[in-house]
Amino acid sequence: MFRLSLRTAAAAIRQKRERERSWEEAELGKEPCKKQKIRLHHRFLRKKKKQEVENKKLKRSKQDWKYCVAAEIPLDLLIEILTRLPPTSVVKLKCVSKFWSSLLSSRDFSNRFLMLPSQPRLYMTLLDRLFYSKSLLLSSAAPSPFPSTFEFDQDQTVRRMGGFDPRFLHGFICFMYYLNARIYNPSTRQLYIIPFINKKSDIIAECRDVHNDPYTIQYYMGHDTVNDQYKLLCTILIGDIGKLRQEYWVYVLEGGGSWKRKSVTNDVHPHIPNVLALCMNGAIYYCAWTDEYTCVLVRFDVRSEELDMLQVPWGDGEKVARLDKTVSQMDYAGKVAVLDITIIKETGVMYLWVVEDWRKKEWSRKNLVLKPCQMHLVTTNQLKIRGTHLKGRILLFPMGLVSPFYILCYDLQTNDLKKIEIKEIPECWFSKDEDITYFDVDFMHPSKSIRYLENEVKLFR
To answer: Among 25, 71, 260, 459, which lies 20 to 30 A Cα-Cα from 198?
Structure first.
């Protein structure tokens, strides 16, 4: 019935147009007078104008329909949908419109995207000291629980990338390329190059003419949770143990940022810092040595930019020289702790010193003993500590790059040590001279960041 009515209406419109056309032909067939010509011309112009108006209305209605479809999605629902997309897709959507670009670049959206749970990723940096162009950054997703084998994803391999002492924070990788600090975001594939302090530092200015600079420099990345700012702490050290001189510099990772020197109190002594650091509760923690036998835990408050330190209370039987100690700070159930694995190879024992109250300088000690059936895993190689931000787990990996390569994952709660073999490492790296190669392994926090730090940026494809 509906189809029939449509056909009837269409036939009526067709007949009306034929009558009008026949009338115009009849009128034009006669010898028109001047008034008739003017009348026909005005009629033609009215029809033309009417048709243009109808076309404009039709075009506007189509555009309005498109906008109405987008407008029907509430903003909170739109944000919820966008946060479920992969980071690479979210970055591409910034070109849709100015509104989308503003939304996806905002700190609120970036922080919400950062809070979503995701799988942690295992990263491995392979650095050739002679040919940096051969360096690689490998990664692999880590399902839970950790499997016994990891295979690096070759599609995620980033060439000409990597550096010394990588540190992971909120989806960013901070590492050193000789004396410069660089920050890489695997989600946006952008590299942030931090300007070198250079002549601003008195120590560097004194040593600029000396071959093989005698000073050491370390960078640590932290996050101010109150002001939502990322900052870099830089320590510059010169001298021998007992005669150390040190400078502290801070860089705010925002537009127009620059290095500023920080003065410290007399309680903060010059110290030799460890390369590994931990950022938690708005502070950066790292272990350091003020002399051959005194180990301290240094805290840098990212918001106030103040430094203080706490001495680790070794027992009388644990007085071991600095170069023979293997210690690192770690996150233990939301508290900062110092892990000592110096004698794990001989006895299977690890010491864990937990800071119970920083102001009162209160510590608690826990002894962790490996199971006898797991001792063979730690007796073959000298081990390094990584993964200290995994909350209840740590990673131990051998000092040398040997095939087959493996890491050890130790669960502090269950006292279980698990061996994880790492595959898909290019074979050519196992045959290279150890003096010209450098490698490091660690887990990225289970989060991804699409945030763009306002700084000098280079894009890697």
So the answer is: 459
CB 144 within 8 A of CB 119: yes
Same domain, 345 and 423: yes
Percent of the chain with pLDDT over 70: 84
Q: What share of the chain is helix, strand, coil (3-state, %, to 5)?
A: 30, 35, 35
Tokens of 247: 């400078």
Q: Which of 219, 171, 213 is nearest to 195 (CA)?
A: 219
Residues making up the chain, counted from first to last:
461
Which residues, 6 or more positions from 453, have their beta carbon under 8 angstroms from its beta carbon?
172, 183, 192, 230, 253, 254
Tell me how far apart the alpha carbons of residues 112 and 441 are, in angstroms, rounded to a whole number. 28
Return the bridge partners of 181, or none.
Answer: 176
In a domain, 442, yes or no: yes
* Parent domain of 20: 1-30
- In terms of domains, do 195 and 277 share one? yes
E strands along 65-215, which residues?
121-128, 136-141, 149-151, 158-159, 164-169, 172-177, 180-185, 190-193
Q: Do 186 and 320 belong to one domain?
A: yes
Answer yes or no: is pLDDT of 87 > 80: no
Per-residue confidence (pLDDT) for residue 195, from 0 to 100:
87
Q: Cis before residue 273, ω within 30 degrees of 0?
A: no
DSSP string, 133-151: GG-EEEEEE--SS--SEEE
Residue 93 tokens, joined:
């959507």
What are the phi and psi torsion angles at 125 (to 5°)? -105, 130
Classified as helix, coil or strand, 412 is: coil
pTM, to two decimals: 0.78
